[in-house]
Amino acid sequence: MNLTLKIWRQAGPKAKGEMVTYPVTDISEDMSFLEMLDVLNEQLNARGEEPIAFDSDCREGICGMCGLMISGKAHGPEVTTTCQLHMRSFSDGDEITIEPWRADAFPVIKDLVVDRSSFDRIIQAGGFISANTGSAPEAHSVPVPKPKADRSFMAAACIGCGACVAACPNASGMLFMGAKITHLGELPQGQPERDARVVSMVSQHDHEGFGGCTNVGACSAACPKEIPLDVINQLNKDLRGALMRGE
Amino acid sequence: MKLLMALSGALFVFYVLVHMYGNLKIFGGVEAFDEYALHLRTILMPILPFGGFLWIFRALLVVALAAHAYSAFYLWSRARGARTTRYVAKQAAQATIRSRMMRWGGVALLLFLVWHLLQFTILKINVGPDAAGDSAGKLVISSFQVWWVVLIYVLALAALGMHLWHGVWSASQTLGWTNSAKSRRTAKATATVIALVTAVGFALPPLAILFGIVKGN
Amino acid sequence: MTDTQTASTVAPEAPAPTREAAPGVVHGLYTEGEPIVDTKAPKGPIEARWNKRKFDAALVNPANRRKLTVIIVGTGLAGGAAAATLGEAGYNVKSFCYQDSPRRAHSIAAQGGINAAKNYKEDGDSTFRLFYDTVKGGDYRSRESNVYRLAEVSANIIDQCVAQGVPFAREYGGLLDNRSFGGVQVSRTFYARGQTGQQLLIGAYQALERQVAAGTVEMFSRHEMLEVVVVDGKARGIIARDLVTGEIETHLADAVVLASGGYGNVFFLSTNAMGSNVTATWRAHRKGAHFANPCYTQIHPTCIPVAGEHQSKLTLMSESLRNDGRIWVPKNAADCEKDPREIPEEDRDYYLERIYPSFGNLVPRDIASRQAKNVCDEGRGVGPKVGDFRRGVYLDFTDALKRMSAEAVAEKYGNLLDMYQRITGENPYEVPMRIYPAVHYTMGGLWVDYDLQSSIPGLFVAGEANFSDHGANRLGASALMQGLADGYFVLPNTIRDYLAKGPFPKLEESNEAVVEARASVDARVQKLLSINGDRSVDSFHKELGNIMWEYCGMERSEEGLLKAIDLIRGLRDEFWRNVKVLGSADTLNQSLEKAGRVADFLELGELMCIDALHRRESCGGHFRAESQTEDGEALRHDDEYAYVAAWEWGGQDGTPVLHKEDLVYEFVEMKQRSYK
Ligand SMILES: Cc1cc2nc3c(=O)[nH]c(=O)nc-3n(C[C@H](O)[C@H](O)[C@H](O)COP(=O)(O)OP(=O)(O)OC[C@H]3O[C@@H](n4cnc5c(N)ncnc54)[C@H](O)[C@@H]3O)c2cc1C
Ligand code: HEM
Ligand code: HEM
Ligand code: SF4
Ligand code: F3S
Ligand code: FES
């Protein structure tokens, strides 16, 4: 199939960017979206134009490295990551706009590549369980009820891709943060630090310049791992509890 | 911030429901309505002076309104600050429309409130054909015989309905009441019910008056 | 001998290499050096060795730890766990990864599970059995002491991960669940649905970020290590490029740890991440670290087959699918184009169940892979033709769906089946899936002693980057185990013995060796940008991949390998004359990153072929056409090849030098493997 791509080009973090139009031809349905961009990049390279920079690593939908705003949708029209999006989701003649994640907490580095280290700093603020190596008790000493284990696992599936922030009209990172709060908060091991964790993560989140959540729900709709909105609720609940307990 | 918004919002919801209940009394005739207006002023009468409860409640509402509007604008400006470069491809997703509606709906409600207060409490502007005197009931009936007044109200109520539909659900989410699939469904349903009931409930008197079902005498 | 990737794109007129036999040079390709006699493993009863080593290793006074700097390249299970643990202990750690966040290291992609000898199922498992199975699974080409240690610490890994909040699968009673995994008859594999690697890595990542917050670990993401700094014979730092600003940075330390993962991407198509590379270890190799068993690669049997020309990578589906799926091809080549649902039961050949009745579909990976290749070579493959053959076999869940209900199947394998559907557009609940082997893991890597120290003092290597405890083949669910064993438990205990000798004399950036290392990196970057030829980096990478898969893949022959070496040399030569890398050195430049990686793969590829050539036996996943039994099974030669082949860099124009480390088996008897 043949497509018209409108792609954001920006030479560097401080450079001014613009949309550039590129036609591509003979795209096969079985290609992934990123393979389609690989083809374009080979052509650009052959023409002596610098290839388009975009992030990807595993190309299996698990590392969270990839992520593009495709015609206004984070990761494109399907509920999956950009690398797992295939061209069979498009039709011949389509015009596709491709933009980087837009959020001031995710500054653009080049073209479609953004800096998501703000997520790492949110985790540094408390997204962990303090268990020094070698100090762990026997794994079976603390059973975890299956429903709690399952809910924890569901939330732990977050890959940190940032699509939630990209899709949220407020550029809020609540879904990402809620997922971590729920993952650790459902487990007995996560209890001792529960209050401190939520307070300090939320404060880091606000400090990074993410927007506040107004419960729009676009985040969850865009999330490739289908993290449900109730993790945000869990976060709010934990936060209220922690504040009331005077954290 | 969000907590403030949710709490003030919840207070509004409570007020709006009471207020609506009161308004519906117009169907019981002007006396019933005036009685209600009086009743508002005489609750806890032995303890508080005439209109005391109403004044406390008014003060609360004003504070809540200020808090609510303040947090709304704060969140709004933070959201703007969080994405200073906009997307080129505008997302047609429902979600954005709804969030815009919350904001503009809120602003519309604010404007409406100004008009509404001017009309019924502060200036008692009477744009209608009949003299109202001291009777709130008559004032109401007289006003709603004018089509454009009704139109303003209907539009405002539509805005209110939408605002509440999302708002009530959103508040329960913010307060952390919805972390199971079941409670989430309940919250959604409650939001829908409250939104519908208030919008329809409020809309009944003006429409009824306009179409002459309730007549002042 | 043709395979998935056809050789059609391979340039036919690659220049013939010069092969004048110098004295002592075998095949004109390599020389043999001194054998390695001491690996520093303690002697005595195997159960006591690791404790003895831990006890004997010198201690570092807590007050001194802050003064010692350790550089760790890689934030996968091995590097992430090591950085967190050394940070907790109070050392001054600098951690590097090329991704934007340490959480994205390729360990995250592991699906199936992690082994541990917990014996929670009371099914006869024990440390010794895990040790035994791993040695046998590795086709008797691994070290007993190391493997035993691995089995021993495996149980601690699970405890550690659970304490960190890794959400392993649990049973209704709230206790941990286990499953059995390819080639093993006990249930000792811990898992988190199809995301075991992700959950383990997030655990290590969180522990790492906790240390970043505590100030003991300094994180350098989007940094690529391009050179090791060796001063007075000791590893003292690295040269790295900041991938965002392009700046070439010097980082100095008391010791350097490489945990940079595997080099499967030398095949272009593999299940590895796009950025997986050999650069970190290859640069160290060129500075004197021996590279062991480079030709040992693992070909994983259950990957999604190649669909077309532009494919950029292959996707693995956990082999746990083999627990409930049945593998078959049509009995008659004529049926291969038919809709599989219309092929009657009696015309299907469940070849693994037929040939290996006791293990059936659960035979080890090497066997499952080779048999898939065999049936396809016979013309009984299914799916689209790639070159002359169809490259695919059916993995059929029809029976499982009848036995277990669709919900039960979805609960166990849902995410894998969904992934298959997303990639291929076919619904596996209705049509049998198609699978084919793909390169997946590299058992080879930098040679290390029992302490995980390479042949350069002060340079330690952990995880897939070292030559692994797995031998010639790896049992499923054991790489995660090795990564975490190395990172949490082994390295932190052995590196202290080295660090106790420090802090080493302070180095200045103006030191001659440091300046030289840095200049060489600069020069290389400039060279790559200045060639400005006509071929893209990817086109070279693809061509190299084709050569490697064709001649150094599942089946190898002397003739093929010699040819491959010629082709690679020609290709390398062309690369340095004709590659086209646009852009500049002082911004993010992904073509430049790739070019550097491919340049190193072009050197590694040759060494892999030389290693494969010299090992004239079929062992592990590596079938040498010249070494097979009458019925076509692999034939090992323990008398000649029971050794680790550690290669020393022979200089830019020299030949590599082979050092043999004999493998002695005291506790397990060497046998030809039989899974019949
Ligand atoms: C698809 C797939 C599925 C798998 N499934 C299983 C399984 O079920 N069970 C199992 O036991 N094993 C499995 N494995 C194998 C296992 O995942 C890996 O062997 C293991 O995770 C490797 O861990 P590592 O820490 O050594 O390296 P990696 O996790 O690969 O990490 C490498 C790190 O090094 C960094 N790095 C690399 N080069 C440089 C450089 N030049 N400069 C700076 N940083 C660099 C990277 O950024 C990264 O942080 C699987 C592997 C794959 C590919
Ligand atoms: C001054 C005018 C008003 C403005 C600017 C305004 C604006 C907003 C905004 C921006 C929100 C946040 C949306 C979200 O959280 O998703 C909100 C929430 C809400 N509003 Fe208003 N609003 C106004 C008046 C009202 C009135 C009059 C009522 C009730 C009658 C009301 C009830 C609510 C409720 C219940 C919520 C939900 C609180 C929450 O989200 O936690 N608002 N409003
Ligand atoms: C059909 C619709 C409505 C009618 C007929 C109506 C009627 C009235 C009347 C008669 C009063 C004066 C009461 C008194 O002074 O005793 C009043 C006050 C008020 N109304 Fe309404 N109203 C309507 C809708 C609304 C809506 C939708 C809102 C808010 C969102 C609202 C908010 C208020 C407020 C805040 C006051 C002031 C109360 C006070 O003085 O304490 N009204 N209304
Ligand atoms: S919550 Fe979903 S969208 Fe957000 S970072 Fe995690 S996986 Fe991505
Ligand atoms: S879209 Fe944004 S507003 Fe909240 S519910 Fe999701 S973070
Ligand atoms: S590249 Fe890893 S999730 Fe897309």
From TrEMBL, chain A:
PROSITE patterns: 2FE2S_FER_1 (PS00197), 4FE4S_FER_1 (PS00198), 4FE4S_FER_2 (PS51379). Residues 145-180 form the 4Fe-4S ferredoxin-type domain. SUPFAM superfamilies: 2Fe-2S ferredoxin-like (SSF54292), alpha-helical ferredoxin (SSF46548). Its EC number is 1.3.5.1. Its cofactor is [3Fe-4S] cluster; [2Fe-2S] cluster; [4Fe-4S] cluster. The keyword Iron-sulfur applies. Pfam families: Fer2_3 (PF13085), Fer4_10 (PF13237). The keyword Cytoplasm does not apply. It comes from the Bacteria. Keywords: 2Fe-2S, 3Fe-4S, 4Fe-4S, Iron, Iron-sulfur, Metal-binding, Oxidoreductase, Tricarboxylic acid cycle. PANTHER family: SUCCINATE DEHYDROGENASE, SUCCINATE DEHYDROGENASE IRON-SULFUR PROTEIN. Belongs to the succinate dehydrogenase/fumarate reductase iron-sulfur protein family. This is succinate dehydrogenase.
Automatic annotation (TrEMBL), chain C:
Residues 541-675 form the Fumarate reductase/succinate dehydrogenase flavoprotein-like C-terminal domain. The lineage of its organism: Bacteria, Bacillati, Actinomycetota, Actinomycetes, Micrococcales. Residues 1-23 are annotated as: Disordered. This is Succinate dehydrogenase flavoprotein subunit. SUPFAM superfamilies: FAD/NAD(P)-binding domain, Succinate dehydrogenase/fumarate reductase flavoprotein C-terminal domain, Succinate dehydrogenase/fumarate reductase flavoprotein, catalytic domain. Residues 70-480 form the FAD-dependent oxidoreductase 2 FAD-binding domain. Gene3D superfamilies: FAD/NAD(P)-binding domain, Fumarate reductase/succinate dehydrogenase flavoprotein-like, C-terminal domain, Succinate dehydrogenase/fumarate reductase flavoprotein, catalytic domain. It comes from the Bacteria. Residues 11-23 have a biased composition (Low complexity). Keywords: Flavoprotein, Oxidoreductase.
